[in-house]
Specification:
Structural class of chain B: mainly alpha
Order of helices and strands of chain B: HHHHHHHHHHHHEEHHHHH
Structural class of chain A: mainly alpha
Strand order of the largest sheet of chain B: 1-2
Largest sheet of chain A: none
Distance between the termini of chain B: 115 Å
Order of helices and strands of chain A: HHHHHHHHHH
Radius of gyration of chain A: 21 Å
Shape of chain B: elongated
Distance between the termini of chain A: 58 Å
Largest interface: A-B, 55 and 41 residues
Number of strands of chain B: 2
Largest sheet of chain B: 2 strands, antiparallel
Oligomer: heterodimer
Number of strands of chain A: 0
Chain lengths: 217, 415
């Protein structure tokens, strides 16, 4: 994989607008620049997804490297039935889960339990009228939310990340996770329910019967 | 009474939230506070989730650079084939050259790569370990003829290597903790480490609790206890005392027991490790000789020539009287004390006999004489004949014996 850097940079810039299929064919024909274009195109996406799964930024580089190493070695086995993005998502999910199962757990919570005693029991959610998207949470309250989100099941978190953050469709998620589309919808439903159950007590207090009780500004 | 449209509303909120913006649903939610509250809850929690997750993902750049990736690919490609120079080699110079070449990528990697490239580091380390293993194997085959049936204990083998440090090196060599010079290790030291053999029986020490639990739970044979006990055996060979392990003494025996027929088609005995507790009152079983005897054996082996191990000689005393049973001492009791060398008086054998033996009854005299003869025979057979001089020059007891032979008064004895 050693090439001259000048030619490489110009060629990469020229090829950045090409489709993935063309780049894959070029790489399989022996052009290493095509894989470099693919690498730069999907590196951040793979990194973000793996960061969402493992919750350990120090492990992201290793996972990204391992994902593209696998893709580099096995790209000839890519049959083109799904998009390259979906294929590399699948590798990323596998690698991230494998890396996480090796014992590296996300520890987003403060180690000292005394810090929690200082946190407010209920967040002050600042809503702007009918638009709940605008929610401001300060740094101290984030720890409380992190603690609640840590209670979410792993497959629920993964499907929420893929659907709402990575903007993958139900069909793409079914390909990535190798489950039927109905299962994807079912998991999405229960993931939203789980999210509501873990966050509602923090957002609206223990008796979260009425969102109107929210401290709105 | 929950709203009958609640479940449909939840499903639409997940699958197609745009439909909830249509006029019929808007009208319904204006009139139904429960549905409105549910939608607000779902939207708010999702918004919080998105915000928290996107903050963690808002990092500037993820993943390694392309240069680091190409370097990792090169490392992975060079790690796979076995170096050809390791396939044939017949001298330690080639072995050391192979070791140097195997370790070179590590230094290269640390200079070139970014500090967070752990994968490349691990790949280089694995490459170095595998290459060193192959190199040591080649060296072992070339330098020391293979004797697979050799059952020499590693303690003796470590002594034969000239230093007990070799045993420690062998251990670290096994677990990848270091690379000893292969020429300093005989094959009998490191070769048993590469082949799993049951050594649990030879040790007799108490097993740690997690090993006992594993055996009790019927986990069967597992490589971990073997490795553990090898390390314990290694401690012994390094001259350390009994392993300091807490807990009750457990004697482990591997025997064939019948498995209960839980599964169909799995009928027949299987080998399982069974742990049985020894009573706490029983003394700990040890195959080691007393400390004084060990030190004598060491001194003797040193004098015999460069760490050669003193051979064990089985001495079976024979009674000179046909049909008479030979009873050197009380059955089951300690053996009789070894007679010391007496001073030469020139009065014949009767004068050299100790006084208590002379005062013994006539029937016993014959037995005592036979016993002394047998012990003399045993002593001449068991003692190494390489050095006829005093084998224990530092032993005060032996010095006293020498002084007695010279007619001098031994130290510490009143005239």
């Amino acid at each position: 994989m050693s090439r001259k850097k000048g030619e490489q940079g110009a060629k990469t810039a020229d090829w950045s607008g090409l489709d993935d299929d063309i780049l894959i064919k070029a790489f399989l024909n022996g052009d290493q620049t095509a894989f470099e274009v693919l690498f730069k195109k999907y590196r951040d996406m793979v990194g973000r997804l793996s960061c969402s799964i493992v919750k350990d930024e120090s492990a992201v580089d290793d996972i990204v490297q391992e994902v593209f190493l696998l893709a580099y070695r096995h790209l000839e086995n890519f049959r083109g039935q799904a998009a390259f993005k979906t294929w590399i998502y699948r590798i990323t999910v596998n690698e991230a889960i494998r890396h996480k199962n090796k014992g590296k757990r996300w520890q987003p919570l403060p180690e000292n339990e005394a810090e929690y005693s200082q946190l407010p029991s209920t967040l002050v959610v600042m809503e702007n009228g009918k638009n709940p998207e605008r929610i401001l949470i300060d740094g101290q309250q984030k720890s409380l939310v992190h603690r609640a989100l840590a209670q979410l099941k792993e497959h629920h978190r993964l499907i929420l990340v893929l659907y709402y953050l990575e903007d993958q469709s139900v069909h793409e998620i079914s390909v990535i996770l190798q489950i039927p589309q109905g299962s994807v919808k079912s998991r999405l439903y229960y993931a939203r329910e789980g999210l509501k159950q873990v966050l509602a007590p923090i957002l609206y207090g223990e008796g979260h019967q009425s969102p109107e009780n929210v401290h709105a500004l | 009474m929950p709203c009958d449209r609640m479940s449909l509303l939840k499903r639409l909120a997940v699958e197609s939230p745009a439909q909830l913006q249509t006029p019929p649903w808007q009208e319904h939610m204006e009139g139904c506070g429960e549905c409105r509250m549910e939608i607000q809850l779902l939207d708010t929690t999702l918004a919080v989730f998105k915000q928290i997750e996107s903050e963690g993902r808002a990092q500037k750049e993820f993943g390694p650079s392309w240069e680091a990736f190409t370097h990792a690919v090169d490392q992975a490609e060079t790690m796979e084939p076995i170096p050809s120079h390791l396939a044939s080699g017949d001298s330690s110079a080639q072995v050391s050259q192979a070791l140097a070449q195997a370790q070179a990528p590590i230094a290269d990697q640390t200079q070139k790569s970014r500090p967070n490239r752990r994968w490349g580091m691990m790949a280089s380390l694995a490459s170095a370990i595998s290459a060193a293993t192959v190199a040591a194997t080649v060296a072992g085959v070339m330098l020391w003829p293979v004797d697979p049936l050799s059952e020499a204990p590693r303690k003796e083998a470590a002594s034969a290597a000239g230093t007990e440090r070799a045993a420690g090196n062998a251990k670290s060599f096994r677990i990848g903790g270091g690379f000893p010079a292969p020429s300093a290790l005989p094959q009998s030291v490191w070769r048993p480490l590469l082949t799993p053999t049951p050594v649990i029986r030879q040790l007799g020490g108490p097993a740690p609790s997690f090993v006992r639990n594993r055996w009790r739970s019927g986990a069967g044979s597992h490589p971990a206890p073997v490795i553990l006990f090898r390390s314990l055996q290694n401690r012994k060979s390094m001259g350390m005392d009994r392993p300091a392990l807490d807990g009750p003494a457990v004697r482990v025996s591997t025997r064939t027991v019948a498995r209960p027929a839980k599964r169909r088609g799995k009928v027949g005995p299987t080998t399982r490790a069974v742990a049985s507790k020894r009573p706490k009152t029983a003394p700990a079983r040890s195959n080691r000789r007393p400390a004084a005897s060990r030190s004598r054996a060491k001194a003797s082996s040193r004098l015999a020539g460069g760490g050669a191990v003193k051979p064990r000689v089985a001495v079976k005393p024979i009674s000179p009287i046909p049909g008479a049973p030979f009873t050197p001492g009380v059955s089951g009791g300690p053996p009789p004390p070894r007679p010391k060398a007496e001073a030469f008086t020139g009065l014949g054998p009767a004068a050299e006999t100790p006084l208590e033996k002379m005062l013994a009854p006539p029937g016993e005299k014959l037995k005592l004489q036979a016993m002394m003869d047998a012990e003399e025979m045993a002593k001449t057979d068991a003692e190494p004949k390489l050095n006829e001089s005093d084998p224990f020059p530092d032993d005060p007891e032996s010095q006293n014996d020498a002084k007695l032979e010279d007619g001098l008064q031994p130290a510490g004895v009143a005239p």
